[in-house]
Amino acid sequence: MRATSAGILLYRRDPAGVVSVLVAHMGGPFWARKDAVAWSIPKGEFDPDAEMARAAAVREFREELGLDPPALDARELGTFAYSSGKQITVFVADGAGFDASGAVFGSFEMEWPPRSGRRAEFPEVDRVEWMPVETARPRLVAGQRPALDALAARLAGG
Predict the structure, then answer these.
(1) FRET label pair with 62: which of 73, 74, 105, 138, CA 20 to 30 Å apart?
(2) How many CB atoms lie within 10 A of CB 24?
């Protein structure tokens, strides 16, 4: 079965009209010293037979950031495919005024160091930032970049 994820892409405009998005730096030892292609829309996997994409996006936002997404009308931006075949359904909402400074990141456990037999716990996300779309683009994992294009098209169309 193909992996399916859902997430919420918050955006805001500054007084000069520059659009920024809220993105999260992936946690864990693999991503610790990486910046390019190491950021993600707050998202996570779900079973489409058991949960609706919008509910999964809200749940995953809460799990990854420890914050409720803003109570705004998040609209579906689209479903985008990674080169691996994984798909992500992205919802978009105006996050003006959303403060992520109180984020408390969820965690995961894995064997670390590799082949050591020891298990360690790491944050799913180690930081979250608002950044202009053009700054976010090279930092975002490649499979999520089309969501930035879809956001720009949506904002340009009203």
Answers:
(1) 138
(2) 25
